Amino acid sequence: MTDATFPQVRIVPLRLLKPVTAESLLNKLAGITGVRRILVRGPGLPEDVPYGPARGNPNPHHDRRTINVGDTEIALRVQVGEVILEVEDDSAITEIRSICDNFFVNYPYQILMGRFMKTDPTLVDYARYGPDADPDLIGLADPRSRDGPVIIRTE
Amino acid sequence: MEYKPQYGPGTSIVAENRRKQMNPDYKLERVRSVTDEDVVLILGHRAPGSAYPSAHPPLAEQQEPDCPMRRLVKPTEGAKAGDRVRYIQFTDSMFNAPSQPYQRTYTECYRFRGIDPGTLSGRQIVECRERDLEKYAKELVETELLDPARTGIRGATVHGHSLRLAENGMMFDMLQRSVLGEDGVVRYVKNQIGEPLDRPVVLGKPMDENWLKEHTTIFHSLVGTPYRDDREYIEYIQRIHSLRTKYGFMPKEE
Predict the structure, then answer these.
(1) Which of A68, A133, B158, B216 could disulfide-link A129, Cβ–Cβ 3.0 to 4.6 Å?
(2) Number of separate domains in chain A
(3) pTM of the shown model
(4) How far apart are the first and last CA of chain B?
C-alpha cells in the first residue's frame, strides 16, 4: 500500500489540454524537487474506433501523440484533463502552485488537495501484477493495458 | 377560440430561444451554407451521386389498401419513393450550444414530417426516410441550431457533451471528426460514424461567445444564463413537479 503520509494534489484546468501545453506543464512539474509520482488523466483517445459501425477502423487523432518529459518519451493516450501529483512534503506544493499560477494565464485552474491515487491494489491489479506488486506502481497505469508507468529522470 | 401554442414558459433569453426554435412560423436564421454533397458525405449513408437504395417499391407501384388514414396522411417524398430509414445524430455541448437533445426533438416534431426522434441525455438521433433526412439534415446544419465547435454530428462514440472544452474551444471528440484549422475554420474530416472522408467538409468558423450566449437553449449558471434567474420557468417546473407528485392522490387545484 502507498504510504498515506505523502501529500497529493490535483491540478484541474478549465480546459482540456493540447499535447503541446501538457508537455510544457509536465516538464515544469517534473523539474520540481520532491515530486514522487505524477498521474495524467483525461478522456481516452483510442487507436481504433472502439464501437459503432466503424468499429476496428484506425482512429487518427491529432492529440494522440508522443511528448517528451525530461529525458523520457511518453505516448499520450488521453487528452489531458487533470494532473495528479504525489509529493514529499508541503514545500513542493507551494512550488506547484506558483508554477500553475504563471502557467494558466488564458483560463483558470484549480488545485485540490487530498487523496487522489489508488491506495490498494484491486482485483485487476492483483491479476496483472501478482501478490508482490510494487505499491508505488499501483494505480499509475491501466492494469488492463500492456503499458506500464514511465520513469522520468530530471537533472 | 383559435388555439395558439405557447411552446414553453420563461422570460429569459434561453426560454425565448427555445420558443423560437420550436415555433414553425419562426424562420430559423441561416448562418452557413453547405452543399447537398457535403451533407451526404457527413451522413455517410450512401456515396454522393449514387441512387437512393430502397426498402420497398414506390407507393405508386404498390397496391395500397383503401384506408381512410392513408387518404388523410400524405406520404413524404422519401416514403413515396420507398427509401430506407436512415439517421443523423447530434451531440451538444453543455457550454452554451445552440440546441440540446430535448429541444431538438421538440423542434423537429414541430417542423418536420415523418420523423422518429430519439432523445437521450447527451445525444439526439432522428430517423426518417433517406431523402427526407438529407433535406432535414441540411436545415439542421445550416441554421442557428448548430455551432461547428459546440455541436457534433456523431453517429457513434458521442462522449463529450458534458466535458470541459478543449483549449481551442472545441468540444471533446474521441474520434476527432471535426478539426479546427489554423485559419479558424472547422472542417469535418470523418463522417458521423468516424470513417475518413475523401475530402474535408467545411462548416465555417465557430460562433463567438456572445452569439452563443444570445442563441443558446441551455441554462448554465457558470457560462450562460442561470436557471434560477428565470422565475417563471421555475414556477412552471415546480407546478409540474408538484402536480405529478400529487397525481396519485387525485389532485385538485385550489
Answers:
(1) A133
(2) 1
(3) 0.90
(4) 26
